[in-house]
Amino acid sequence: MAPKDPIALVLATIAAGATAGAATITLGVIALRAVSLAQTEGTASFMIISTATLGGAVVAAATAWHLTESINDIWRRGVTSAIATMLGFIVAALSAPADMVGGIPALIVFLCLLVGVSVVSYKGALSSIE
Fold first, then answer.
1. Domain boundaries defined on the chain
2. Who contacts 98 (Cβ-Cβ below 8 Å, separation ≥6)?
3. How far apart are CA 11 and CA 8, in angstroms?
4. How much is the pLDDT for 129?
5. What is the pLDDT of residue 42?
6. Which of 113, 130, 106 is nearest to 15 (CA)?
7. pTM for the full model?
8. For the chain, which terminal residue's Cβ has fewer other Cβ atoms within 10 angstroms, N or C?
């Protein structure tokens, strides 16, 4: 199955992967804030943010890899996944200003925005495939 518009597929795939990965990392930041309000010290904070960051990278790459299934070139699929992962880290960095501005409620709003953009991008990528 060849994509109708490969450029639209790749752009929607990068957007879907990046926002899905950023949403995963933002979810980890929300968990980290909740744990930090409950306790003052411990290694749980490091484990939460490390797991969220690794999970976000995996989600971004896996989403992009899955959506570019119709592209036969492994190299292009891999580059698309890598770009989605790196962009996911950049978008997830926006959770810091959201946290400073409004705390956990602002992070939840940011998470909902990321999930919404991810769903719309995912559907856009699927519509680019014949």
1. 6-127
2. 106, 107, 109, 110
3. 5
4. 83
5. 66
6. 113
7. 0.92
8. N
Residue type at 27?
A: L
Furthest C-alpha separation in the chain: 54
Q: If DSSP states are collapsed to H, E and C, what string results for the chain?
A: CCECCHHHHHHHHHHHHHHHHHHHHHHHHHHHHHHHHHCCCCCHHHHHHHHHHHHHHHHHHHHHHHHCCCCCCHHHHHHHHHHHHHHHHHHHCCHHHHHHHHHHHHHHHHHHHHHHHHHHHHHHHHHCEC
The residue behind tokens 């926002």 is 19
**Residues of the chain below pLDDT 50:** none
- Do 14 and 83 meet the contact criterion of CB atoms below 8 Å apart? yes
Q: What is the pLDDT of residue 1?
A: 64
